[in-house]
Design brief:
Blueprint (H helix, E strand, L loop, with lengths): L2 E2 L1 E4 L15 H13 L4 E5 L5 H13 L4 E7 L2 H11 L5 E8 L2 H8 L3 H16 L5 E6 L6 H14 L3 E6 L6 H14 L7 E6 L6 H10 L4 E4 L13 H10 L6 E2 L7 H12 L20 H9 L18 E2 L7 H10 L7 H17 L3 E2 H16 L3 E9 L7 E8 L2 E8 L3 H13 L4 E9 L8 E9 L2 E9 L2 H17 L14
Parallel strand pairs: 1-10, 2-3, 2-9, 3-4, 4-5, 5-6, 6-7, 7-8, 8-9
Antiparallel strand pairs: 11-12, 13-14, 14-15, 16-17, 17-18
Helix pairs in contact: 1-2, 1-10, 2-3, 5-6, 7-8, 8-9, 10-14, 13-14, 15-16
């Protein structure tokens, strides 16, 4: 019988460290419920000590998830651990994940601690976390650049103090597969009490080797992989959950372990995360990219038609590539609408929320003939955004654009219920719209990213726009969707502006120290 490979998903924590990828509480809950549906073992929901908003988000995930273990991250500091314990208390299964840096460069320049002080702190904080739960994970930040002898001492002491999982992170994405596998193997062989804990690996993708390093660790004894949906994460990202899971599942001749993941939920999870974060998946991305199972070469097409296995090593259906289309239109009722959203993991707290979403669905059904699951996901995401950020609201937008003429936009906004109007020219209809909005709001921001993606296929598809703005060192993403991409652009721009002016907005996770 194969060993179980534990999947530790950190999309909601490490994935959220991508600049502009900060998620709302409701968005985190939606993703967490999809991860639970996918049968992820551990969901790292966030860093509760970062801010009250992050604490509330982790707590909301702990209240919503019943099958997966809910985990919170804490530095090796008592108040951080106490905060995690309080946030995850509602969860049926709880884990506290604490970490401290062990590399010379981090200990000297960041922590300003000696190796003995770090060792002592690690032991004390693992013991402190054990007061709240038996499920404690300890990570040695920047293990890739740490002295192997010191790592052995730290992990031995952490396990003795009560850590059930010990994590070896390649925090800066520096290692290569054979070296990383050898490091995992050496640690397991040299730590006397290694068999009393699950060994985990957490790899970043700075050299494009996060998945390869993670798999090398698995081949050398690691039985937990820390990863994210779509490989989301700070800098170049983290190990991609879908690639790790399908590599282990597909190459059973190589790996003596397997996951409990329901792989048919991989593509829905990928689309949900991409839609919420505004980080689209490139077409040639393994497993979840639009071209992952596409064949243009005549030779390939002929081979696949005759026998799929000639060019496909896995079935598209096994990872969730199905035609999830609902036959709902303007005459469909609320019950059918509610049922389909429930199947997608979207539930409404009140009848008023259902009615509001249903009205949006009716408006969309008037614009496009076929409604897809992705349309519904975008519809609910937009509703969540507007409920949280209502300072600036788009009332109307009129844009005139024709050959040989300078585009002109007329916009009306409601600011705290009071309508204001502005007109502005621009180099294009979107530029004119943004300038007209700026004329009313007067916010001095820098546009870092403007991205348009189609949500579904067809010329009547909704356009999903992501706008990234920066002001005073703070970076936010705005999202908007509409069958008219100019209107979608205005919605996305306003959504980002609302986040910039919202009082008490969550501190971005990058403001805190992370593994």
């Amino acid at each position: 019988m194969n060993d179980q490979l534990i999947i530790f998903d950190t999309t909601l924590r490490d994935g959220e460290q991508s600049p502009g990828a900060s998620m709302t509480r409701e968005e985190k809950v939606r993703i967490a419920k999809q991860l639970e549906r996918m049968r992820v073992d551990i969901i790292e929901a966030g860093f509760p000590a970062a801010s009250k908003g992050d604490f509330d988000a982790v707590k909301a995930v702990a209240e919503a998830v019943t099958e997966s273990t809910v985990c919170g991250l804490a530095r090796a500091i008592e108040k951080d651990i106490d905060r995690v314990a309080e946030a995850i208390r509602p969860a049926k299964r709880r884990r506290i994940h604490t970490f401290i840096a062990t590399s010379p460069i981090h200990m000297q320049h960041k922590l300003r601690m000696t190796s003995e002080q770090v060792l002592e702190r690690a032991v004390e904080m693992v013991k402190h976390a054990r007061q709240y739960t038996d499920d404690v994970e300890f990570s040695a930040e920047d293990a890739v650049r740490s002295d192997i002898d010191f790592l052995c001492r730290v992990f031995e002491a952490a396990i003795k103090a009560g850590a059930r999982t010990v994590n070896v992170p390649d925090t800066v994405g520096y290692s290569i597969p054979h070296a990383w596998g050898e490091r995992i193997k050496t640690l397991i062989e040299r730590v006397p009490n290694a068999s009393k804990a699950v060994w985990s690996t957490h790899c970043h993708n700075d050299l494009g080797l996060a998945v390869a390093n993670s798999l090398s660790a698995v081949l050398n004894g690691a039985r937990q992989v820390e990863c994210t949906i779509n490989g989301l994460g700070e800098r170049a990202g983290n190990a991609s959950l879908e690639e790790v899971v399908m590599a282990v599942r597909t190459r059973r001749d190589i790996f003596s372990c397997d996951t409990r993941i329901d792989t048919t939920q991989i593509v829905p999870a990928s689309r949900l995360v991409a839609g919420i974060t505004g980080f689209p998946v490139q077409p040639n991305k393994a497993i979840v990219g639009a071209n992952a199972f596409a064949h243009e070469s005549g030779i390939h097409q002929d081979g696949v038609i005759k026998m799929r296995e000639t060019y496909e090593i896995m079935r598209a259906e096994d990872v969730g590539w199905t035609a999830n289309r609902i036959v709902l239109g303007k005459h469909s009722g609320r019950s059918a609408f509610r049922q389909r959203l429930s199947e997608l993991g979207i539930d409404f707290k009140t009848e008023q929320e259902l009615n509001s979403a249903f009205e949006r669905f009716k408006d969309l059904a008037d614009k496009k003939h076929e409604i897809f699951d992705e349309d519904l996901q975008a519809l609910v995401t937009e509703a969540d955004l507007e409920q949280e950020n209502e300072h600036f609201q788009l009332v109307s937008l009129k844009v005139c654009s024709q050959t040989g003429e300078i585009p002109l936009a007329q916009v009306t906004l409601a600011i705290n219920g009071l309508e204001q109007h502005a007109t502005a020219p621009g180099s294009g209809p979107v530029d004119a719209s943004f300038k007209a909005i700026d004329g009313i709001i007067g916010e001095a921001t820098q546009l870092l990213l403007y991205s348009v993606n189609n949500i579904t296929s067809g010329t009547d598809s909704q356009g999903e726009v992501t706008v990234r703005l920066e002001k005073g060192g703070r970076i936010v993403n705005g999202h908007g969707a509409d069958t008219d991409i100019v209107i979608a652009s205005a919605k996305a721009y306003l959504n980002a502006l609302n986040k910039l002016v919202a009082p008490g907005e969550r501190t971005h996770p990058q403001a805190a120290t992370m593994i």
